[in-house]
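Human: For the file, kindly provide a plain-text protein record giving the amino acid sequence and the backbone structure tokens, at your earliest convenience.
Assistant:
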Amino acid sequence: MGTSFLFPILITLNFFFFTLTSSSTLITDQDALLAFKNATVDTNGVLRNNWLTNISICDWAGVSCGLKHHRVTDLNLSNFALYGSLTPHLGNLTFLQSLDISSNNFTGVLPTELAKLRRLKQVNVAYNNFRGEIPRGILVNMSVLETIDLRFNKLSGKLPSDICNNTPKLKRLFLKRNQIYGKIPTSIYKCKEMEELSLSKNQFNGNIPTEIGNLSMLTLLSIYGNNLQGNIPASIFNISLLQFVYLNDNNFSESIPTNLDNLLNLQELYLYSNNLTGELPEELGNLANIEFLTTSFNDLLSDPIPSSIFNLSNLVILSLQQNQFSGSLPSDMGISLANLEELYLFFNRLTGEIPASITNASQLTVIELNRNSFSGPIPHFGSLRKLETLRLWENNLTGADSPNQELEFLSSLTNCQNLLHLEITNNPMMNGILPASIGNLSASLDAFSASNCSIRGIIPLEIGNLTSLEVLDLSKNQLTGFIPTVGKLNQLGKLHLYDNQLQGYITHSLCQNIALLELYLDSNMLIGSIPECLGDIKSLQKVTSRQWELRGRSSQRENSRRGRVRLVR
């Protein structure tokens, strides 16, 4: 009977002590949050108006509690316009699983007390102004931590050599855009569950550890914009789950590994701005899902571009410019590129004709083939209705069979009503006449450059319809007739017509071009003087002519050696 009598008393005492313990821990959590609040400048007043002591902390803005113990488990204050430094009291939120204070303006250092939060799975302090070293404990001793996001701060120091020794659950490590230096620790391979690793835009040096190739779950590897060197480890390309690889803007040398057959999930491969040498691996053509492929600005990559690359039907951007690639493009290159939007092959040593099949790549918006040695006729690009940029300058391209024929490829471009930039300068074998249909080019066209193209005949009056033009360069040709009226071109900043055979007077309509910066008319057969009203164009910096003087209102004139006149404001 005595035992029966005591049992209800024990139950009551247990409930009392549980309630007392829960109450005291809630007060501990409340104290930690209030200390955080008092150390923070609350620009929008969210904490000031909501974190009130007469309200349960579980109902405070950005605070979530567990159902069982009513302890704080999540603190999400992202984009609350908060200023100040983090208080060490956050280390008392011992049930905290997720901390997100990203996109604020916190300063100072990350408190080492954060490493006491052994239940923490996610920490996100990205887009702030934290300085100093990353607390070692966060990178080494957090056994359940899955995500560390410290991007876009000013953190410095080295990564600990024993990183990942006791963070077996870490899946995402984002350190992009900080000031972290030193070598990438080889022990990083111990984070066996790592899926996304971003160390870009720091000051890492040395080689990529070959051990990174053991991160078999990796889908993202981003280490661009560092001072890394040596070769690209072939072990990286054994990670079959990789989808995104960004190794650009480093100092990698030697050749690109050829073991690419496992990368069946790869969507983006960025290798540009390194010192890579040798040829492009033929195996790149096996990357069936790749959408973005860029090896540009390596300078020393050479040999023909593998034809298999042009069979990658999912390609959206192909960027191979500024290397030493040679040979010709395959005649059927455009047949399979149904999704290609941007093609960059400029500054190479490519020869032969531009394949007409390129016009089958109907999604193209950018074609840049300038500074190569392409020859033969320019294809009619009229079927590329989305084309915005066409740069073919410094090649040996032709435009007409005889000098008296119109440049028909220009007429075909009138179908490209999104065209912004048309540059064909320095193709001295172009020949041909500008068609009147040039006035039907895109109303958005802001640059037409066709200098040194052996263009003959007159400048069509219809060119005055291109009211968005900012640059018109027809210099170094064999143009005749008069300077057309271009007064409607209110955005025209540069008009270069020098080194032609133009005749007549300089039209006063030029004075209506109120945005004019440069007017180059020398080496023609013009007569008369430069209109005085040009001196009223406040933006005008240079007027070049021969045997004329500017009689405008300029207070500062300087004749150059060639008899040019410079108006400087």
Observations:
- DSSP finds four helices and 42 strands in the chain.
- The domain at 255-377 is CATH 3.80.10.10 (Leucine-rich repeat, LRR (right-handed beta-alpha superhelix)).
